[in-house]
Protein: galacturonan 1,4-alpha-galacturonidase
Organism: Aspergillus nanangensis
Amino acid sequence: MTFSIGKIVVTLLGLGALTDAAATAPTRRADKTCTVIPRGGDLDDVPNILAAVDKCGKGGEIRLPAPYVYNIKQRFTTRLEGSKLELGGTLRFSDDITYWTNNHYEFDFQNQSTAWRVMGSDYTVDGGKTMGGIDGNGQAWYTYNKGQGNRYGRPIPLHIFKSQRATFKNLSIRQPQFWAVLVDTSSRITLDNFYVNATNHDYTASSGSNYITNTDGIDTYRSDKITIKNWVYEGGDDCVAFKGNSTNIDVENISCYGGPGIAFGSIGQYPDRYDIIENITIKDIKLQPSFQYQMKSGIYFKSWIGETKGTPPNGGGGGTGHVKNVTIEDVDMKDVGYGIYVNTCLNYQLSSDEVSKYCDTSTFSFSDMHFKNIKGNTLAKSTSYPGEEITFAISLLCSKKAPCKDLTFDDVDIKLPDDYDGPKVLCANADVDGLDCEDLDG
Ligand SMILES: *[C@@H]1O[C@H](CO)[C@@H](O)[C@H](O)[C@H]1NC(C)=O
Ligand SMILES: *[C@@H]1O[C@H](CO)[C@@H](O)[C@H](O)[C@H]1NC(C)=O
Ligand SMILES: *[C@@H]1O[C@H](CO)[C@@H](O)[C@H](O)[C@H]1NC(C)=O
Ligand SMILES: *[C@@H]1O[C@H](CO)[C@@H](O)[C@H](O)[C@H]1NC(C)=O
Ligand SMILES: *[C@@H]1O[C@H](CO)[C@@H](O)[C@H](O)[C@H]1NC(C)=O
Ligand SMILES: *[C@@H]1O[C@H](CO)[C@@H](O)[C@H](O)[C@H]1NC(C)=O
Ligand SMILES: *[C@@H]1O[C@H](CO)[C@@H](O)[C@H](O)[C@H]1NC(C)=O
């Protein structure tokens, strides 16, 4: 039988099949399908999407097919249990800055915001052959954000929250408002075949200014057993970033165009939180500039100063934790600012001079980190990075209070410009094998 509720079409096959399937729940019942067609014009499609999830989100299938574009004008949560969401079409978020600043989900880290939460277990979200997904309509946010980082209310379009055993695949996220994807308080999540692109089209930007700050590809927080593979990212911030309590994560085959690359952090920002990043393997990474923005760095680790100065999002510090058991291999970098670095002197609120005073105060620890087969070139552009100068191919600037332990480098060959004759590898308070380190003060 077929009946419709507004523009949602629900199809149920024989009742016998229903009874059988109910016995094996939460496995998906292919016989319970809800197809959502946009309401048309400027109407918000969140109500019809939610009605479909209500009907088919437990053991069924929800279809939002191509070529439809769904208007998303309010925050919403979809709960999927043993079900599938086929997202061949596009969720287009409104760019009503006032609405989103006042109506979003709070994310308990750096006062951030999210717009669409996906919760549940044993589910799949698949963009299919059209690679459907999200249009974050982010330009209004990029312009609004001019020259500022972590601006309040900029929502993350895809917040995977309190989810277990879920797969997200074949998805595109264009013009994300903020970070494209956040995996938070979740476990056993696979994110396979993603395309993320944040491009600024506001050419009133003077050259070199970056309006697309905070357009990370994916961040993980309080999550375990995550697989991130086959991604293409273009934007102005971290391609992949691990925040506190990111454990047992495999990252493979990621191509990043522009931004600071692969980030561990920031960590140690909250004095009352212990941040763990442990058991991380990263493999087959390509880093190159975009047509719009340089590759600022390649692979980097950033922990806050050991004392609390200011409050989040841009201030803080004094947090504890550890990064342990990290393997990074097969990385190819092209024209990257700073190839690999560890910076234990972070605080976005203090001036560079002020923050330098706290560079040896962090107790956050780094150990058991291994780098293999890293190739390419860096630019050795001088910078006054907050805290320390990190102009080199590799800078391992660990805190006196928590020296880095057991860092190994094998088959690492990063070229610097021909006319550059300064230091190549700089180390401080670091136990390093496989590199010719120059000391910070030497
Ligand atoms: C952010 O949240 C912290 C608490 O975690 C609070 O102290 C601070 O005032 C908030 N900042 C802003 C800009 O809302
Ligand atoms: C979707 O992703 C899977 C990998 O998870 C891939 O095998 C498949 O070909 C993709 N499907 C389409 C239609 O692109
Ligand atoms: C990202 O989008 C811009 C603008 O549409 C395009 O020029 C660029 O090639 C895209 N990047 C990738 C990696 O596809
Ligand atoms: C790497 O990921 C890209 C983008 O999803 C895909 O086109 C390519 O086939 C993948 N390469 C391998 C070796 O799987
Ligand atoms: C991380 O996990 C540890 C151990 O379970 C816990 O003590 C700590 O508060 C967690 N940190 C965060 C940021 O949730
Ligand atoms: C390090 O992490 C890998 C998985 O990323 C795991 O297989 C290995 O057992 C871990 N090693 C230690 C010493 O915990
Ligand atoms: C890291 O991997 C090792 C070896 O598999 C395991 O014993 C340990 O519990 C893992 N650490 C975390 C935080 O999951």
Observations:
- The longest strand covers residues 320-346.
- Residues 128-129, 169-170, 192-193 surround 2-acetamido-2-deoxy-beta-D-glucopyranose (ligand 2) (CB under 6 Å).
